[in-house]
Amino acid sequence: MTGKSTLCCEKVGLKKGPWTPEEDQKLLAYIEEHGHGSWRALPSKAGLQRCGKSCRLRWTNYLRPDIKRGKFSLQEEQTIIQLHALLGNRWSAIATHLPKRTDNEIKNYWNTHLKKRLAKMGIDPVTHKPKNATLSSIDGPSKNESNLSHMAQWESARLEAEARLVRDSKLRSNSFQLQLQQLGSSSSSSAYQAGPNWHGTMWSSKSNKVVSGGLLDESPTSTMTFSDQNLSLPALTVGLISDRTASNNEVVVKEERDEEEEEELKSIGKSNHHFLRSASDIALFPDVYNQHLEGTKWRYETSKSSGDGDDVPMDEVDVNLPPPAGNSNFINGFTELLINPDHNSSSSSSDVGNGTGVDRDGECTDDDDNNNNNRYEQEISKDYWNNILDLVNSSPSDSPPVF
DNA sequence: AATAGAAACAACCGCCACACT
DNA sequence: TAGTGTGGCGGTTGTTTCTAT
């Protein structure tokens, strides 16, 4: 090894390779009794001839009690493919959306199963587009591709912010819990609870953007479970702000995050609003979405902070979202947009329908509003990825599907 | 039954970001 | 501010298991 030393030092005599049941037992017993603390110091204390890094990986990927092993379900496969289309090889980010699955396991499954499967079907596993369609954008990105890029960047930035906030929250968990207990003493019970799939995901919000009459007034608090440390905290709600005006049933979702987030955490507790922050949030909270937001017109805005508190608009993208019937369906539509970005802008002879509600100018027309939900119901029922996966599962391996 | 190649899985490696001193 | 330690992440490799011949 060259460069600086790592956890995996070059001590002679440290064992490498597969772990034995005895080693697993030692590691489990030690962590159950003492916690892992410093990984570097753990092996000697636990009586293991392993480096700390090896112990950490073994615990993280295989011994942790909140890990599900075994075959991936069709739903999980679908989710991985869709999230990979959105996030690329960001396995840890993908893993946050798959309950009890580790990034390593997902990565391995992708490399050994899904990537090959997509390739066999004629889909580029990197771009998630049919290989014969990769030249379609030779004249430059389409409007929808541009929209998609915005959304992907948005999601990417969101995940990074979530990770940062998780770190912050863990450090301050005790004081923070106390704070929110105080602030939330007048709140009603939670309208939804995030399950173990959150893996510490946490959001914050810029409270000065709160618009009265917010989306989820009756659900001011929710609970997330931090599965890695059995740490349960009240949820911080979101960093994208929604404004639903009475006149046009429009929700504006804004992305913005800066160092003021710290202060926002406090004011969120005082606020009686909830905010959906991104498309994936809607997918994650389908019940909430169905109850409050169905048929709503969404406008995504991205902005950057100028540093003096003023937000500089960067771009706006109008997108009508499909009414999600479940976690996967929204993403299905989104993924289809990724794979076939021009799909919605041209008439189709198929029964799939053509409406995503985004016209060539990125504007949502009234007709789109009126018909959008029905179109999406049709389109989603088509369920692009389920069809693909069903096709893969049922078809002979050497006969790629026709797109 | 033997064997080679493919597939699947587990683990390692190096880099990076961040916290701490 | 620089140096160091630590843990996380993604890419890659090594080993085992499966399958076809």
TrEMBL record:
<dbReference type="InterPro" id="IPR001005">
    <property type="entry name" value="SANT/Myb"/>
</dbReference>
<protein>
    <submittedName>
        <fullName>Uncharacterized protein</fullName>
    </submittedName>
</protein>
<keyword id="KW-0539">Nucleus</keyword>
<feature type="domain" description="Myb-like">
    <location>
        <begin position="64"/>
        <end position="114"/>
    </location>
</feature>
<feature type="domain" description="Myb-like">
    <location>
        <begin position="11"/>
        <end position="63"/>
    </location>
</feature>
<feature type="domain" description="HTH myb-type">
    <location>
        <begin position="64"/>
        <end position="118"/>
    </location>
</feature>
<feature type="domain" description="HTH myb-type">
    <location>
        <begin position="11"/>
        <end position="63"/>
    </location>
</feature>
<dbReference type="GO" id="GO:0005634">
    <property type="term" value="C:nucleus"/>
</dbReference>
<dbReference type="Pfam" id="PF00249">
    <property type="entry name" value="Myb_DNA-binding"/>
</dbReference>
<feature type="region of interest" description="Disordered">
    <location>
        <begin position="341"/>
        <end position="379"/>
    </location>
</feature>
<dbReference type="InterPro" id="IPR015495">
    <property type="entry name" value="Myb_TF_plants"/>
</dbReference>
<keyword id="KW-0217">Developmental protein</keyword>
<dbReference type="GO" id="GO:0003677">
    <property type="term" value="F:DNA binding"/>
</dbReference>
<dbReference type="InterPro" id="IPR009057">
    <property type="entry name" value="Homeodomain-like_sf"/>
</dbReference>
<dbReference type="GO" id="GO:1901957">
    <property type="term" value="P:regulation of cutin biosynthetic process"/>
</dbReference>
<dbReference type="InterPro" id="IPR017930">
    <property type="entry name" value="Myb_dom"/>
</dbReference>
<feature type="compositionally biased region" description="Acidic residues">
    <location>
        <begin position="308"/>
        <end position="318"/>
    </location>
</feature>
<keyword id="KW-0677">Repeat</keyword>
<keyword id="KW-0238">DNA-binding</keyword>
<dbReference type="GO" id="GO:0000902">
    <property type="term" value="P:cell morphogenesis"/>
</dbReference>
<feature type="region of interest" description="Disordered">
    <location>
        <begin position="300"/>
        <end position="325"/>
    </location>
</feature>
<keyword id="KW-0805">Transcription regulation</keyword>
<keyword id="KW-0804">Transcription</keyword>
